[in-house]
Amino acid sequence: MKLETAALYLSVIMAIFLFSYSYVEGIKIANSEGKVYGGTFIFTVTAGFIFSRLSYIFM
Asked: Which residue windows are transmembrane per the record (predicted)?
């Protein structure tokens, strides 16, 4: 397996993981009452888009 192929698979897996984690965090934020901390949600969405772009580059 070439290094580029391994990087592609890693980027795709990380993007899927980060988007699913941000989805769960969004549901938690939507169900909570009062003040919420959205730093985790913002970070995971941003990192998901970064890994999506990396997987596009490695294709």
From this structure: 6-24, 36-58
CB 49 within 8 A of CB 2: no
Q: What is the pTM of this model?
A: 0.85
Summarised one tens digit per residue, pLDDT across range 1-59 is 788 888 889 999 999 999 999 999 999 999 999 888 899 999 999 999 999 998 888 77
Q: Which helix (H) or strand (E) holds 43?
A: helix 39-58
Give me the residue label for tokens 């730093």.
39
- What residue segments make up the domains of the chain, in order of their start? 1-58
